[in-house]
Task: inverse folding
């Protein structure tokens, strides 16, 4: 079965991530799913943004220079939606204002905006109807424990809005994703999430959640994930080891498959290849042909679709 191509933050290889044009382009490029990262504003509105901070992807430091916290960061949670709507969304920047991906959309240019989760769901619904091709949604509940400390319970709000997207009876495909393992358990058992759930797996040094990913990728850890989740979304580096420059697969994908978990690794980028791979094609072939992954997150949905078509015609 063709692996699901998930447009990571939209067609983010071509247009600033998580902007509406990036989502429209991802749909036109044939993405099977379009990803949303969901964060809450001060007035408990849900917006689509990768970080709980605004400063690496908007002009917030210019528009609201005195609104940083003591750590120097500008938090979504400190702004009302109406304020966030006044910001210009930019290609992702480093702390010094230069581009994270120099070959992509020029840094600090363009007239894009941040939008709400609901607006994005409505947009994808409209594109599905207009084109006759159904793209699914793939929302990520961002930093739920942090949001709770900030006074908002993010997961029930996200699930309620997905219900509106899915409520029309179109049965559009949905996956819900989260890095926090205790929240995944809660989403399944307490919040009765009716859509498939993907447990994201990162590296412990990111401090993305209070979750031990080293333990999670062991067979016992994966068995616990399989109690509540339908799949895993591991970082690509967990799928292989490098032995003197040669790539060798780990057992993660087969261990997960043995437990009935689907596997959707991230992130496939032709302009930022992981160590050991010389092309996007060799990376996709390694994961799709040798490891039989079920889907993948990519910034370049068109390039991955072309490679998958070539694999299918081999
Ligand atoms: Ca994400």
Result:
């Amino acid at each position: 079965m063709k692996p699901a191509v998930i447009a990571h933050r939209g067609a983010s290889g071509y247009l600033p991530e998580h902007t509406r044009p990036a989502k429209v382009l991802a749909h036109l490029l044939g993405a099977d799913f379009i990803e949303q990262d969901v964060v809450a504003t001060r007035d408990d509105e849900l917006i689509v943004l990768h970080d709980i901070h605004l400063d690496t992807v908007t002009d917030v430091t210019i528009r609201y220079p005195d609104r940083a916290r003591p750590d120097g960061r500008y938090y979504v949670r400190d702004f009302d939606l109406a304020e966030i709507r006044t910001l210009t969304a930019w290609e992702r920047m480093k702390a010094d204002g230069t581009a994270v991906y120099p070959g992509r959309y020029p840094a600090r240019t363009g007239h894009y905006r941040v939008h709400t989760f609901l607006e994005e769901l409505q947009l994808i619904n409209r594109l599905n109807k207009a084109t006759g091709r159904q793209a699914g949604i793939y929302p990520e509940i961002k930093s739920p424990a942090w949001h709770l400390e900030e006074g908002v319970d993010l997961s029930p709000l996200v699930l309620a809005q997905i219900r509106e997207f899915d409520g029309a009876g179109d049965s559009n495909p949905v996956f819900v994703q989260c890095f926090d393992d205790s929240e995944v358990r809660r989403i399944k058992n307490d919040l009765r999430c009716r859509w498939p759930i993907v447990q994201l797996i990162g590296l412990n040094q990111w401090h993305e959640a209070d979750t031990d990913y080293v333990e999670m990728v062991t067979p016992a850890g994966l068995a616990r994930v399989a109690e509540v989740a339908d799949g895993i979304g591991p970082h690509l580096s967990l799928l292989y080891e490098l032995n003197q420059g040669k790539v060798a697969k780990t057992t993660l994908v087969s261990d997960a498959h043995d437990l009935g978990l689907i596997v959707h690794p991230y992130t496939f980028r032709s302009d930022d290849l992981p160590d050991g791979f010389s092309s996007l094609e060799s990376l996709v072939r390694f994961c799709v042909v040798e490891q039989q992954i079920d889907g993948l997150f990519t910034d370049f949905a068109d390039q991955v679709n072309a490679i998958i078509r070539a694999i299918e015609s081999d």
